[in-house]
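Entry type: protein chain
Record version: 2
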Amino acid sequence: MNCTKNLILLSDFHDGLLNGKETARVRTHLTICASCREISHDLELIIAAAAELRDEGSVTCPNENVSWQRFASVALKGAEAAGGQQWLRR
């Protein structure tokens, strides 16, 4: 397996979505390719950090509707200050 193919499969490998043959091919490649092994390790760290943040529970996602209302309010004020809705044409 070449590095390009390995990198394409790496995310699915870490998620356990590959079949047995593909999993074995990725594992074999990782044993012989230091560069892909480093990338795989970095991906493991990212996955672990994301899981930790997700599990904290104290973090709340912003309300999308409120965010869009705030954006619209600021954008309209900016448009009025610019003399109309010319900002939309940029």
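Comment: Residues 85-90 have pLDDT under 50 and may be disordered.
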